[in-house]
Structure formats: C-alpha cells, structure tokens
Amino acid sequence: MTSFPDNFLWGASTSAFQIEGGYMEGGKGLATTDMGTGGPDVADNKVASDHFHHWKEDVDLMAELGMKVYRMGFSWSRIMPDTTGIPNAEGLEFYDQLINYLLEKGIQPFVTLYHFECPMAPVEEFGGWASRKMIDLYLKYAEICFKHFKGRIKMWATVNEQLIATSSGRLNGNTEKDPKQYAKVLYQMSYHVSLAEHKAISLLREIDSEATIGPVCAIQVIYPRTCKPEDILAAEYAEEMMQYYLLDMSVYGKYPPYFESYLKKHGLYPHTEEDDAVCLQDSKPDFIGINYYFSGCVEAREDGPEYGIFPPWAIGDYKMCENPHVLKTEWMANGIDPKGLMAGLRKTYHRYRLPMIICENGMAYSETLGEDHKIHDTYRIDYLTQHILQVKEAVDEGYPVFGYCPWSFIDVVSSHQGFSKRYGLIYIDRTEKDVKECKRYKKDSFYWYQNVIKNNGL
C-alpha cells in the first residue's frame, strides 16, 4: 500500500468542448472548436460524448468511482455567446444543474474558465486574443462566473495549456499566412491572455476571497540528446520557450530574461502598455495545475528559427529529436516516461514555491468494445500506476502535490484525432461518424481506480 495524505484530492478530468456536445443547443454560441479541429473523417465536437444530455448519468458514475474532485470546464460560448457581455440564462442553468448535482454527490467542482474553446463572435469581430478587447470580454465572462457560482465553486483554473491555446490557429483564429507574422501574433495573443489571467485573479479576490485560482500548464520536461554543453543549454532554452515563459508570467508577471531577449532579437516581442506591469505583478495564483503525458528531447540548433512549423517545437535555439530511452506507442509518440513527472514537479516547485495539483495525466489507446461490452485496458492501469508512484514519491519528499486527476474521466473527442484516440476510464460507444446512443461502459481501469481512491493509494 502507498497511502496518500487523508485530504488528498482524487479526481478525474474533462473539458467542455471535448465532452459536452449540445451544439447550438440551450442558447450556446459558436466557438472556434465548433469549426472542427480534425479532418473530414474525424469526429467533431457537435455531439462529442453527449455529456449535455448525459450529465446526470455521468455524475452518478463519478460518485460510483468515488471522485473527490471533478476537474471540468465551462464552455465560454455557452455562458456568453456573443460580445455584448450579457450572459445566456440557459447556459447558466445547465451549469447550475451540473454543479448542484456534483455538490449533492459530495464532489468538489474544479472549473477551468478557458480550455481551448474560444468564442467565434470576438474572433470575427476584432480578431479575438490578437486584440486587447478580448481581455475585457474574458474579464466580463469571469465576473459572471465568479458571482453566479460564488460559494459553490471554490477552485478555478484561469487558462488550460496556454502554450497550445495560443499556438494553434484553429483554436484561436490566428489566420496569418506569413509564418513569421503568425509567430508574432501568437506572442501578442499570449501576452493578452496573461494580462487577462492576472485581471481575473485580482477580480476573484474581490468577489470571493475564499475561492482559489491558478493556471494549468502542460509542463515540458526536456532532456538533452547528449551531454555536450550545447545540448544541455538547448534543453534549458526549450523549457524556457515552452513552459517557463508562461509560468513566469502567471506567477511573477514578467518574462524570463532569455525568452524576452530572444523575442526582441527576432522581432517577435509583443506590444505592451505602460500600466500593464502593475496589473501583471499585482496578483499571484494560489496553485499551479500540472498536465503531463510525456517528456521531450532536444539537441542544439545550428541554423535559425523554423517558421511555418508548429511554433513551440521550432522557434528557439533547440531542435526536437527522439529519445531512444523511452517506450513509444501508437498515440504516445514521444514515449512514456513516468520519471519525467517527478522531474517536472520538482523543477516547477523549486521555481515557483506553490502547491500543485495534477490536472491531466493519461494513456491514449485505440479501443473497440468487445462482445462482452468490456475494455481490458491493462496498459492504462500500468501507465497510471507508474505515474501515481511518482506523485507519491514527490509527496513523500515534501513537495506540496494536493491532488491527482487522470485524463480523462470518460472518452472524449480528441482535439484533432476524434474518437480513434481514447483516454477515458469509461468507454463511450460511438465511432467517428456514427454517434449511436453514446452509451457508457466502465473499463477495467475504472474499477482499478475506484480501489485506488477507496484505499487512498495503490
């Protein structure tokens, strides 16, 4: 037995656009994710896992699992479908029912305000996050949520994985054709997201001083390909360009020196205003949410930046490469590396000295329901076991990790791989194009994790 602290929060995670469905139902407005994030033969999120019509059944399954916390997301465009700032009463009613039932079942809601799903109305009207107008719109959305759910939601996440949210044009409406200009807009968007995040943190302090709030970061544990000094530095550069510039801004309200100098050197530094520094440094998050699936490996770059490739992987004094020392699978192409989670937790705490909660950690696999309506996912159980052991080691060493939420509670529509790529503890019976009835079937990992929670450890 590996026993965790008595107050440890065992839970599971999803996001709104990946499970809800209910496309254009209940007054919901269009979002970037409604435009389709995969190819023509890949499932979109118009039905997704049909949580919009199965929410009560899903909460009953969470209660059966024994979850202490549910890390979920609100659909911004369901609550605020346009740019008027007027909330959609039907959207709030849907979340009222969900939140109230979670609380009735003894499950703490941990809500992400912005998880990739950017409303289309501001994108079409003024370019979304490329404009400072988006900051005010996000703040109005946050204010609606903070006031409406005060006393019921006591844990908030500002933004999920800003690295991806600002890098993927499909998610944020960055339509620049010139690769370098695309990167410049990316960092301008990122700067505006960070400003909005700090304003939201300060706003929550005013509205509900008992609630806590923090960012959720996809931590980047990067190894050098060799022990050459150039590769060692390349790994440090990569972590700065893919993680620390975001968390430094979230926690300290300023960019790390290397990142700032790099952007200025290459003409990518965002436009700022004189009063921004006060806003950025006037608030600090209560915790950091940690997403971790795999580590990365780099070598020194001898040429300049590669514009036109997914920016986080290509802009910087490093070049991504394969790590021969980790096990690769169909969907885990970067390899499975449990030790990387421990390394990432240590580095994150040493730099920020804030409590941490694991918000996403999971094993993707292509799965088909058997004739017995069962999924024998021993591979997922093994993956989660190895990573939970690393969390336990971190806790035993004194690192303040206060919760663990695997990705994902149920199978979700992947951001661009549909339902071919499944992470859930519960199988959703649908294919890419045939949504069927979206029946729920508990996988072997569901029962395994149920015992983990019951025993408060492995």
UniProtKB/TrEMBL annotation:
Single GO biological process annotation from the record: carbohydrate catabolic process
Pfam family, one: Glyco_hydro_1
MF terms in GO: beta-glucosidase activity
Domain of life the protein comes from: Bacteria
Keyword Hydrolase among record annotations: yes
UniProt KW keywords: Glycosidase, Hydrolase
Cellular component annotations (GO), alphabetically ordered: cytosol
Family note: Belongs to the glycosyl hydrolase 1 family.
Name this protein carries in UniProt: Glycoside hydrolase family 1 protein
Source organism of the structure: Schaedlerella arabinosiphila
